Amino acid sequence: MFSRRLKKIQNNFRAISRAFSRSFASVNIRASSRYYVRAGSLPARPRAGFTIIELLIFTAVFSVMSIAFLSALVSAIQIQTKQLAASEVNQQSQFLLDTIQYYVQSASLVELPSDTATTTLKLRMSSSSTDPLYIYLSGDVVYLKQTDSGAAEALTSAKVAVSNLTFTKRANNPGHDSVNVLFTIAYNAVSQTNSFFQNLQLSVARVGAATFDSNVVPSSNNTYKLGTAAQDWQSINNTIFFSSSNVGIGASSPGQTLEVNGGLRLNTVTAKPTCASAQRGTFWVVESGAGVKDTVEVCVKNASDSYIWSTIY
């Protein structure tokens, strides 16, 4: 009986020991597993990040790409700024050229010395409200002024700077005079890399005939002439004609010093002057009253060297 109980106790102890062993083994396995996971995760952590070499390579690639992007952005901005500068210069230079061309073509006279470069263009216009007209450079801005007392009007803005503006009159006989225009126009840029300029030249001829709305009066007495011996006027009011040294009245091609197409009337209602050397060759018609004939006399010198009025009718 006792041996049975002892054997039963031994069996129970063995069962408890086996159960405990299994439990401990299970706990040990789980603990080992947890330890392995924790221990195994330590060398796996660097694989989730970057090594120093990888960081250096990434930094180098990022720097190169950033520099390339910034360079492209700066180039695009510079190109856009350059295009804006070119557009501004082109627009203002074209407006300035068109304005000069318009007023030169409309002018009655280009009042400049021939073949001499000047900085101010002076034009005589047909209307007193715009005569005279000036185009000139002051600083780096081109101005237009109508009449001597008129206000100056800017033809260019502060976005551009004009320099070296000159006007030269060219005589084109027997045609109209022309004006050569030279100037440099540049964009007012803060940086030289964005600067843009043009050197321009224009030659424009006056196309309008000289017209006046007031009397033609010389500026000084007994100084100026109309025409020259080599270039004489063809006619005055299509009535008095010139051909070499001959003058025709009503005769377009005079063959004598004076040729009159029509009658010549001597209407002398004033008192007859004394015949003297200054009146020699003067014809005079003396108008008589009712019932008395008129007389035609000429101032001549007789054989005794005296000057007398000789009646020829």
Structure explained in plain terms:
With 313 residues, this protein is α+β, with helices and mostly antiparallel strands. Among the domains are: 89-205, no CATH class; 232-263, no CATH class; 265-313, no CATH class. Helix content is 33%, strand content 26%. The chain has two helices and 15 strands. It has helices at residues 2-48, 52-106; strands at residues 109-110, 120-124, 133-138, 141-146, 153-154, 160-170, 178-187, 197-205, 235-236, 240-243, 246-249, 258-260, 283-286, 295-301, 307-311. Strands 1-2-3-4-5 form a five-stranded antiparallel beta sheet, covered by helices on one side. Strands 9-10-11-12 form a four-stranded mixed beta sheet, with no helix packed on it. The N and C termini lie far apart (208 Å). The model is unreliable at 23-42 (pLDDT under 50).
What secondary-structure arrangement, pairings included, does this model have?
Layout: H1 2-48, H2 52-106, E1 109-110, E2 120-124, E3 133-138, E4 141-146, E5 153-154, E6 160-170, E7 178-187, E8 197-205, E9 235-236, E10 240-243, E11 246-249, E12 258-260, E13 283-286, E14 295-301, E15 307-311
Parallel strand pairs: 11-12
Antiparallel strand pairs: 1-2, 2-3, 3-4, 4-5, 6-7, 7-8, 9-10, 10-11, 13-14, 14-15
Q: Give the overall shape.
A: rod-shaped
* Oligomerization: single chain
- Beta-strand percentage range: 25-35%
Quick one: how many beta strands? 15
* Average pLDDT: 79
Condensed summary:
This protein is an alpha+beta fold. It has helices at residues 2-48, 52-106; strands at 109-110, 120-124, 133-138, 141-146, 153-154, 160-170, 178-187, 197-205, 235-236, 240-243, 246-249, 258-260, 283-286, 295-301, 307-311. Keywords: Membrane, Transmembrane, Transmembrane helix.
